[in-house]
Amino acid sequence: MSEYTISRVHPTDRRSLSQIDALLEQEGVKRDSNLDYICAMYDEDYQIIATGSCFANTLRCFAVSRAHQGEGLLNQVVTHLMEVQYQRGILRLFLYTKIRSAKFFRDLGFYEIARVDNTLVFMENRRNGFEDYLAGLAGTRTDGVSGALVMNANPFTLGHRYLVERAAAECTTLHLFLVSEDASLIPFSVRKRLALSGTSHLPNVICHDSGPYIISNATFPSYFLKDEEEVIRGHASLDLVVFARIAQALHVTRRYVGEEPFSQVTGIYNQIMASRLPLAGIECIVVPRKQAGGRPISASAVRQLLQKRDFEALKELVPPSTLEYFQSDEAAEVMERICGAGEVAHY
């Protein structure tokens, strides 16, 4: 077999990216918008014959030229990407793949976490990673009625507080999962601190970092699903398969979600939860949004006011602890990021 070269492809290398797009298209895949490292394997004529990419702790966007399949090239690409990730200090790796490719990745040391609808498989490079995560959660299991809430809290608003208060009042224990991935304008460390402060008056709330298993929009792969709604449904379906295992570990029988009048993505997601969670023995309870000034409170509206530095208007939308943080010198860097972000509303 010839020796082929693998190297990084930079975002400005239009020639290589065009070849990669054509190679991915042959596999029914499109290049993901969320990529922080792209590699390509070149033949003797400097034509791309294989590719793969990373985003955060995930591997994605693989393709091999049909003229070179069966030569073990994908193995080399995956090995290269794993070495890149290890050099970055990212030792725990995840990937999403089509059902037919799962065996290949198992042979490379990846283990299945969940699969959905004969569409995709979610895998990691730790044999007992998910089981260890579930065992850790089980240590917080309590008797009585247990509910769960998952939120990004970007940032924590009076709407979030109302939702947590409502759920906590109806449960013996409420497990609050905060999305721990740093893909939001407001860092996880800040989001967590504000959520903990905003719920400190509720003794039956247990906060958990979501870890890598409650899947965010950023890490979910949109690149091999045909259209936006299929991506949303695929994301929701996979998330709910994983969440059902989490709920089982915690004896959770209720998942609370906020009503979504603004975001089409979240609205479809909520519809899927309402239909699928009961099949796993979990009640889906949709809570109407808390309103201020006749409009539902949203984190998007809060970020828009932060861009304007309209702290007077923010008093009606966020708890004192959230307002205090954003008015402090400590928040200067985060405020600069929000103010320079352009559009901060999510739809």
Structure, explained:
With 347 residues, the chain is α/β, with parallel strands linked by helices. The chain is built from 12 helices and 14 strands. Strands 1-2-3-4-5-7-6 form a 7-stranded mixed beta sheet, with helices on both faces. The chain has a 5-stranded parallel beta sheet with strand order 10-9-8-11-12, with helices on both faces. Strands 13-14 form a two-stranded antiparallel ribbon. α4 (129-138) packs across α7 and α7 crosses α8 (264-276). The model has no long low-confidence stretch (mean pLDDT 90).
Quickly describe the structure:
With 347 residues, the chain is an alpha/beta fold. It has twelve helices and 14 strands.
* Amino- and carboxy-terminal Cα gap: 50 Å
- Give the overall pLDDT as a whole number: 90
Main sheet: strands, sense, barrel: 7 strands, mixed
- Classify the secondary structure makeup into a structural class: alpha/beta
Count of individual beta strands: 14
Total helix count? 12
Pattern of helices and strands: EHEEEHEHEEHEHEHEHEHEEEHHHH
Strand arrangement, major sheet:
1-2-3-4-5-7-6
What proportion of the residues form beta strands (DSSP E)?
15-25%
Basic shape: globular
Note poorly predicted spans.
Answer: none
**Fraction of residues in H or I helices:** 25-40%
Q: Nearest-angstrom radius of gyration?
A: 22 Å
Topology at a glance:
Elements: E1 5-9, H1 14-26, E2 37-42, E3 48-55, E4 58-64, H2 73-87, E5 94-98, H3 102-107, E6 111-116, E7 120-124, H4 129-138, E8 146-151, H5 158-169, E9 173-178, H6 188-198, E10 205-209, H7 228-250, E11 252-258, H8 264-276, E12 283-287, E13 291-292, E14 295-296, H9 299-308, H10 311-314, H11 320-326, H12 332-339
Parallel strand pairs: 4-5, 8-9, 8-11, 9-10, 11-12
Antiparallel strand pairs: 1-2, 2-3, 3-4, 5-7, 6-7, 13-14
Helix pairs in contact: 4-7, 7-8
